[in-house]
């Protein structure tokens, strides 16, 4: 299973990220490529406690949905709703300069994969998460949005 804990998996998603351009067309959803970069950065920020995210978990999402999302051998489906704080049409960080925003995302990926980095103990939908869970989720989240833009 791919995870940002593995150097080669991290290198893969960063290489794919660098293929995305401001005008890259989306395959689904409403975000632009630039908004997607900011959305991923915001999501990492909430994972390490730099940005709050509202709770939306249930017994179902903390158990079955979490296991399927993190460990079932399938790609995440298009159209899954996100928390308002990282939604680019609501409370997400607005895009500024594309190159600077990509650099910011690359920097936070390096930050979250550092050995000493601690994650918040709870995901707003999946509940309790270990560092291993967070690094798996991080890879899958990046993969999902990079596929959204054909990268």
Using brief descriptors, characterize the structure shown:
2 strands, 5 helices, globular, mainly alpha, two-stranded antiparallel sheet, 151 residues, Four Helix Bundle (Hemerythrin (Met), subunit A), single chain
What do you see in this structure?
By secondary structure, this protein is mainly alpha-helical. The chain has one domain (7-148): Up-down Bundle (Four Helix Bundle (Hemerythrin (Met), subunit A)), CATH 1.20.120. It contains five helices and two strands. The chain has helices at 7-17, 33-47, 59-71, 98-113, 131-148; strands at 122-123, 127-128. It has a two-stranded antiparallel sheet. β1 (122-123) and β2 (127-128) form a beta hairpin. α1 (7-17) runs parallel beside α5, α2 packs parallel to α4 and α2 (33-47) runs antiparallel to α5. The longest helix has 18 residues, at 131-148. The two termini are 19 Å apart. The relative contact order is 0.26. The mean pLDDT is 91.
Q: How does the helix and strand content classify structurally? A: mainly alpha
Low-confidence stretches: none
Q: Enter the CATH topology name.
A: Four Helix Bundle (Hemerythrin (Met), subunit A)
Q: Percent of residues in helical segments? A: 40-55%
What is the CA-based Rg, rounded? 14 Å
Please, what is the average pLDDT?
A: 91
N-to-C series of helices and strands:
HHHHEEH
Instruction: Tally the beta strands.
Output: 2
CATH architecture: Up-down Bundle
What is the makeup of the main sheet?
2 strands, antiparallel
The CATH class is Mainly Alpha
Beta strand %: under 5%
Number of domains: 1
Give me the side-by-side strand order of the main sheet: 1-2
> What form results from the Cα inertia axes?
globular
Number of helices: 5
Alpha-carbon distance between the termini?
Answer: 19 Å
């Amino acid at each position: 299973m791919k995870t940002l804990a593995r150097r080669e998996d991290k290198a893969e998603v960063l290489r794919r990220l660098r293929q995305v351009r401001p005008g890259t067309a989306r395959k689904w959803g409403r975000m632009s490529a630039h908004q997607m970069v900011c959305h991923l950065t915001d999501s990492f920020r909430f994972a390490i406690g730099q940005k709050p995210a509202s709770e939306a978990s249930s017994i179902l999402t903390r158990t079955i949905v979490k296991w399927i999302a993190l460990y079932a051998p399938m790609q995440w489906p298009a159209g899954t709703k996100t928390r308002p704080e990282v939604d680019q049409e609501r409370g997400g960080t607005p895009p500024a300069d594309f190159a600077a925003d990509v650099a910011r995302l690359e920097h936070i990926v390096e930050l979250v994969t550092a050995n000493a980095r601690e994650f918040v103990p709870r995901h707003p939908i999946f509940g309790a998460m270990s560092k291993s869970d967070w690094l798996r989720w991080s890879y899958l989240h990046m993969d999902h949005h990079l596929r959204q833009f054909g990268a």
